Amino acid sequence: MSNDTDDEAFGRAGGKITPRDRDYPKWYQDVVREAELSEPAKVVKGCMVIKPHGYAIWEKVQRGLDAMFKATGHKNAYFPLLVPQSFIHKEAEHVEGFSPELAVVTHAGGEKLEEPYVIRPTSETIIGYFFSRWIDSYRDLPLLLNQWANVMRWEKRTRLFLRTSEFLWQEGHTAHASHDEAREEVLRMLGVYGDFAEQVMAMPVVRGLKTPSEKFAGALESYCIEACMQDGKALQAGTSHDLGQNFGKAFDVKFQTVDGNLDWVWQTSWGVSTRLIGGLIMTHSDDSGLVLPPKLAPIHVVIVPIFRTDEERIGVLAAAERIGNALREIDISDERSRYRDFLEVVIDARDIRPGAKFYEWERKGVPVRVEIGPKDLAHGQVCVKMRVDTAAGKGKEFIPEQEFVTTIRTRLQNFQHELLRLAAIRRDEKTIQLDSWEVFKRTFAGEDSSFAYCHWDGSADTEARIKADTKATIRCIPLSGQGHAAEPGKCIYSGRPSPQRVLMAKAY
User: What domains appear along the chain, each with residue ranges and CATH number?
Assistant: First the structure.
């Protein structure tokens, strides 16, 4: 993105949204501001304030994922925000990976602490400590926990939702009796993330394995889902880690096996964060503002009454209330959902011009706008406008009132599916297969990026040289059935043998 930080760039456009093709980073900032999702917390460097509309989206993310976690046997818990600094040092690779980002508390209660605390950058260490207290036998396993929390990683260059010093997330932590069970968990939760991204966020993703250079500090292996943003850059939208026995050994988390021996547990961790909201923005939104899939929209329908006289006002508002009440009775949850999800409807009867209302709700990404005036009442109809023109409907439609109410659920389902289809088309347009280093360099010149499937020889040196020359990184080694064919070939940089293509792109 541009060189401006959030604090420098935010709020310059005077209510306008910069076109994507003119300045994509500025467009993103403008959409966040105009949709009233978040703003920089200028008095706390690198942090953000999530405003009510933005937090309502996060609550929808939480609710959806939480149900999926519980359906796979996980339970929620909560662990301390402060982690003894000595814990971070118990796993060598872990401390090396996180040391530059740590925020350390050295004083409290007016006194210097005997041992400093680290504000959690992640919780593998402190959870490992408590696992050692809770696990004695194979009968205590598997232990499947999840935590909804905030974390802090001291960032020098921040972007709202995408990279801030403090952010919200969930982190799953599990302990198992065997490596096979742990690996099964890692891939299961990767599947949960992939399904959520595609089925709820309408954001197509590639599921794959991170390279050793890109894996989580302290893990044996890391898996991820990668999404293609509209500018061709990748967003790592979720990760799932096979921790092996590394943290089990660091915190002496031993258990008695079935045959009476002692062994260290096999652990996993996995997480997504509020950067999903950034991914949601950059996957669907347009030059008019935010676009939201219905499954994550805090408001599904806004009804705008239109009238000129007091007499018209009474009749139109009564009709708006009648339609709104009928819509609020409609359950739009999936059949497999653990929760009922009723339509959220706003009747915007403020004393401002209708055009200003249309402008505001369009920028906030409400999927359906309904206009109703005296002529509509006379004809028993409503005027309906979807947030984005799709193959199913373009522009304004005049629909009989009862027909609109009875078909709104299907209309929203179709809109959800259409957003996924359009996002997949945009992703495919940005996806290429490259075999020439010269073409690769031209593809990634300047700020340009694509989802490029290329051969790589598997060496960390080649990976580092590609990144240094182009700023493109290996986003993942696609799993079977993901991405382009797994045929062998020659590395795009070194010319050495390569077993399969990997996904390369610039990333957020």
Answer: 6-284 (3.30.930.10), 294-414 (3.40.50.800), 431-505 (3.30.110.30)
